């Protein structure tokens, strides 16, 4: 009886946590959506599940699909993807969270017709056309990004941004209520002595990867893992080292982090800061084109020397 009571209690606690995450994701999406609309320059597309039928994350629990937001510029020239609140599962513990975004040029944009041609149809058709166009146009590899960034919500609120010419950081001044440029042309250290991963999954890693992590321990590397990608990547960007979320069987056979709105923007920012990013030690993470919005991917992101050392432990792909 006690065991059954304990199981029921744990199930109830997990249900409450998932429900809290879902509500927080929804609230964050609404806040971001309203902020984008306020600019007057963005047509926001908030994909409901019916719109994402061909793009859904079939591996995620049904009760918690990620809170992704897709947006299109009013002239349809650019499309963007947002992870409104990365690390939402940590929020109750007051651990840092963040917003991640990536901006692409709309590969279906036609400067001659643009949006004007679409607006000659009914409003319903226009909205449907915009949603479909944005969903299809956002499925591009990370090397096609025109801009990417993240906003870290912690002891300070920091916006890290790249427009393709280096990575820069802005810190929110609460008195001015504006972001102030505090780090120009950030450069990740050539090598760091910190590794960041969920080592609870280690039994599901490949043997070569296990040997690599054991090597890091022998070399007295420090393990630092927040569980919020924004927090872990921000620390790696500043201090160097390697962040990794590899394939892990049986739970994460394709990796756990979403390629489009987590891995690719973060890899882009680190690469713009002189770092490297890869899916398997050999393939550049930014060369991979997602086939659906919530597609997951293994990722290794960090200092050049750390990624090169990782590669020396891993077998080349077949």
From TrEMBL:
One of its GO terms (biological process) is sucrose biosynthetic process. GO terms for cellular component: cytosol. Pfam families: FBPase, FBPase_C. Residues 19-183 form the Fructose-1-6-bisphosphatase class I N-terminal domain. Signal peptide: none annotated. It catalyses: beta-D-fructose 1,6-bisphosphate + H2O = beta-D-fructose 6-phosphate + phosphate. Coiled coil: none annotated. This is fructose-bisphosphatase. It comes from Attheya septentrionalis.
């Amino acid at each position: 009886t006690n065991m059954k009571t304990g199981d029921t209690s744990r199930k109830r606690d997990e249900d409450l946590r998932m429900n809290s995450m879902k509500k927080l994701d929804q609230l964050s999406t609404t806040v971001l959506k309203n902020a984008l609309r306020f600019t007057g320059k963005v047509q926001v597309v908030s994909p409901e599940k019916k719109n994402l039928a061909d793009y859904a994350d079939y591996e995620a629990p049904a009760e918690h699909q990620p809170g992704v937001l897709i947006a299109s510029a009013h002239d349809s020239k650019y499309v963007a993807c947002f992870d409104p609140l990365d690390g939402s599962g940590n929020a109750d513990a007051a651990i840092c969270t963040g917003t991640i975004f990536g901006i692409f040029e709309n590969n279906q944009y036609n400067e001659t017709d643009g949006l004007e041609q679409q607006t000659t149809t009914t409003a319903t058709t226009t909205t449907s056309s915009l949603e479909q166009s944005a969903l299809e146009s956002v499925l591009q590899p990370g090397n096609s990004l025109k801009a990417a960034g993240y906003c870290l919500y912690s002891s300070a609120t920091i916006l890290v941004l790249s427009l393709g010419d280096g990575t820069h950081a802005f810190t929110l001044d609460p008195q001015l209520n504006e972001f102030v440029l505090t780090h120009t042309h950030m450069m990740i250290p050539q090598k760091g002595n910190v590794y960041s991963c969920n080592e609870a999954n280690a039994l599901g890693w490949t043997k070569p990867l296990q040997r690599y992590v054991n090597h890091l321990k022998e070399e007295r590397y420090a393990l630092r893992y927040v569980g919020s990608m924004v927090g872990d990547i921000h620390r790696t960007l500043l201090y160097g080292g390697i962040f990794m979320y590899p394939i892990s069987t049986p739970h994460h056979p394709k990796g756990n982090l979403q390629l489009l709105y987590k891995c690719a923007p973060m890899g882009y920012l680190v690469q713009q800061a002189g770092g490297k990013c890869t899916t398997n030690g050999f393939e550049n993470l930014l060369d991979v084109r997602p086939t659906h919005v919530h597609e997951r991917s293994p990722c290794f992101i960090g200092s050049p020397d750390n990624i090169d050392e990782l590669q020396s432990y891993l077998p080349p792909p077949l």
